[in-house]
Amino acid sequence: MTESALFTIFVVAYLFYIGKSLNPPYPREVLEFPWLGSFFLFSSSATVVVAEHRLKKGERGGFHLWWGITMALGAAFLIYTATEWYHLIYHDGLTLSTNLFGSTFYSLVGLHASHVLVGLVLLGIILVASLTGNIKDRHHEHIEMISWYWHFVDGIWAVVVTVVYIIGMQ
Amino acid sequence: MANPTSSLKEVGTELAPAPPGREHGTLTAWIQDLIFTVDHKKLGLMYVGMAWLFFIPAGILASLIRTQIAVPNNHVLGPEAFNQAITMHGTAMIFFFAMPMVFGLANYIVPLQIGARDMAFPRLNAFSFWTTFFGACFLFLSYIFGPGLYGMGAAPDASWFALAPLTSKAFSPGNNIDFWSLGLLISGVGSVTGAVNVMVTIFCYRCKGLTLYRMPLFTWMVLVTMFLVVMFLPPLSAAQIMLVLERFFGAKFFEAQAGGSAVLWQHFFWIFGHPEVYILVLPAFGVISEVVPVFSRKPIFGYPMMVAASVMIGFISAGVWAHHMFTIGMDSFSVTFFAFATLVISIPTGIKIFNWLATMFGGKIRMEIPMLFCIAFLFQFLIAGLTGVMLGVAPFDWQLNDSYFVIAHFHYVIVGGIVFAVFAGFYYWYPKAVGRMLDHRLGLWHFWIFTAGFHLTFDPQHFLGFLGMPRRIYTYQEGRGWEFLNMLSTIGAFLQGVGAIIFIINMIYAARKGKIAGDDPWDAWTLEWITSSPPPEYNFEQLPEVRSRRPLWDLKHPEDPDWRFE
Amino acid sequence: MDTEHADHAEGVELPTPTPWPMLSALGIMLIAGGFVTSFVVALVGILLGLIGGIGWFRELFPVPNHELVPYTEPAKRAAPIKVSPRRISHLALGAGGHRAYYPLRVHRYSSGITGGLAGGAAMAVLAMLYGLIFQHSIWYPINLLAAAGLPTMESANVAMLNEFHLSAFIIAVLSHGVLSILVGMLYTVLLPMLPARYEWFWGGIIIPLIWTAMLFPMFDIVNPALAAHVNWFWFIVCQISFGLVGGYVVFKSQKVETMQTWSLAARMGVHAMETEEDR
Ligand code: HEM
Ligand SMILES: [Cu+2]
Predict the structure, then answer these.
(1) Which of A80, B10, B109, B311 is deepest in the core (most CB within 10 A)?
(2) Measured between alpha carbons, how far is B19 from A53 in angstroms, rounded to an integer?
(3) pTM above 0.90?
(4) Is C196 at the interface with chain B, CB within 8 A?
(5) Does C87 reside within a domain?
(6) Is C67 in the same domain as C183?
(7) Inter-chain contact C62–A125, Cβ cutoff 8 Å?
């Protein structure tokens, strides 16, 4: 809930400042729709469900596999974002301080990416704990919470994509 | 000044003996206990101790401010020091006196009232306290470390709502503004985690039979408060993150040259700012709703209405923020909307006042100190609400915005309402926490001197506002007709200081020599009075079971229990 | 988490005290401190935060740490709640004393209208009488009253005030009539609440005096002309005449039953027909 409120403010700031930048680059010129990143992230939501399913059935091996795939997808998303930013910064000259678009873009997408990072750390802790055989039944609740968090981060991405890459590019 | 608080904290530890197995009695053991503890009662007292700790510098700043404007053309404080003083006073009072006080009361009372052994996440609770505390320290460190414009340490000076573009690098070089935003960011983390903790506690740890519909009103209002914290603190944090990005990394959020908007900052701040005032006042309402029935010997009048009104206030308070911005030039639709919403919010508030009055009506009123503070609260909060409604009428606000009338309005709410309720709560619950009663005679002195000082300070400020005195001016010229009222106001401020000192003396005195309280000194009805005073670390030997809103009444009057009527 | 507070015969299990949360918080503060001082501080902060976080995690994992807190000795425990010796008596509907009283029968609102009109007429007659006797024109008070809404009248002299002006007449009659009716209706509500002994005294004299007192400071603003010319003695006499006549008419009117005693269904109109027939 808190996080949604936090994101709401950044989204509002983004929407408020769409088209108000005084100097280039403008979104239309430099942004590309993040097909690949979105694919990674959205599919990871599915794999985490599968992993949970395996855990409930008591198949530790399957759980580790799918949980690991989820992590890999999350990491791939982060790498995608990193390359996108790299391109924007060194090719298009867009930084946080270039114009309003830069400020709002990096802060919103960056906020989301940091949440993905936190999610990855949480996933990693569970994976290590499980591999070392420390996960007991009483921890299933926590695992469920973490996967909920992961879905939440995913949902936020849907909003971010809509705002930044669809509305913002018109 | 430092002495009273430190002994105050000792008070806090006296009541909870260090857990066995660890040495106790020495200073190191005491400090170790403070750092290690995860007990909700100790943390609650630490919150409260922190609140009083920061009340002192903030209060000293207030008296400095009042001294500076007591007479025209005064130069006790220069303009820079004056701006720092008002900023630090406002910020510290709201975030580091009132907020920790809310969290302290909630921490201490809520688990007891709902018959729980502790909070849902005891360790997180400790973390929340320490982030709040370190955030406050961070802010005050600016007086030492803030290499501001003026050579040595410089505190933030852009007022408690840090208006853009005053906060941009161009106008505030140095780091003082960063101390403001980072300090509040840190303590904001603590507030949000604390709020989540309290909410989960209330939802998941109520004792058997304590349905939501039987929950004590203090707990109810704390619940609504915590919702507001969770929903409306993040906008502030978000805005502060933007400010930090802007000041350290050159982002452009609020900078007009790059097309940014200073008005957006105001929107973000007040989206948080108005709910914040209800975050502070709802627990105060809760205290009043506990104290008034007990000292009127009647159950609260209109319990469902009270709950509904609190929830309504929670909702509506989300939609009134722009009444702080009537003068920035909004379109007429927005003005109308926010003026209307502001008027609407006074309806649930009025319902509450009527319910308290109806509770007192025909009751057998005991004029103990908590009740005195409640009665004063009723008068003062009524007036505060009325001036609030006046300010909510946009054209009236155009005239009086940023004048001393606004200062008078919100100090009537915050001092006349919240601080009075806090005092009421202290006289009410101190015996539970310490095991000894606060002294009645000293209490009377405290009450009357503080009340007189309060009115002397803030009543004239309404008129100063009408006479056109703007707020935040560090001095003024003679011959505007402001001298007399300002003098009165300053005298009143010092009188309040005397009252506060009497209160502190009372707390120290009572901790050592006060009358032994017993489990239930007020013949009250809620669960916190069923256990010993001070409660043991685990609160209850056996978790209680509840069948009505007044569980202790049921036990005291088995021939006529409340649950027959529910 | 429920396992955190398990009961035992000799005590209660509570979470072990731990310093890690405090250390994490300190770390966060130092990270922030790094912004305003040097990055070394931030590094220390990150380090402390990490240590705190890991320590905290190990506190909770795999099982949250607990310790057994023994019960305090019986002497220090809370005493059992004593049964109160006091006897409770309940308020009963209709019984004297506090608040078990509803107005079961009230005056009709329509009586307020007639009462207000009657009072207003009495007041007007007296006022015109005053005009006739002291200013030699019945139009004088009418014009003054209208001055509230007519700018031309505000600066008028006595001679002008003595003439007949159609617009002033209409305004005066309208405002006087509306106000009279409103006050009359207020009377229907107020009268039953006044002390039962000397109703005529409270309603007829005290209330008009109170509203005259409230009008007094407002006149300068609302109707400066009236404030300048008014004869306060006659003014008060007129007000009291309204109170006495209007109050009398209302007071003598038939009272009707309120719905207070009806059932909810009847109040909502569901069973209205039945109840009518029952009577
Ligand atoms: C009855 C409900 C209330 C109404 C209608 C109301 C209305 C207002 C309005 C319209 C203003 C803006 C004045 C201006 O800046 O020109 C204002 C300011 C303020 N109100 Fe209230 N208020 C109410 C209750 C409260 C409560 C309960 C609190 C605190 C707990 C509070 C605290 C404040 C504060 C702090 C300000 C000053 C903001 C500033 O620094 O300019 N108000 N109020
Ligand atoms: Cu407000």
Answers:
(1) B109
(2) 44
(3) no
(4) no
(5) no
(6) no
(7) no
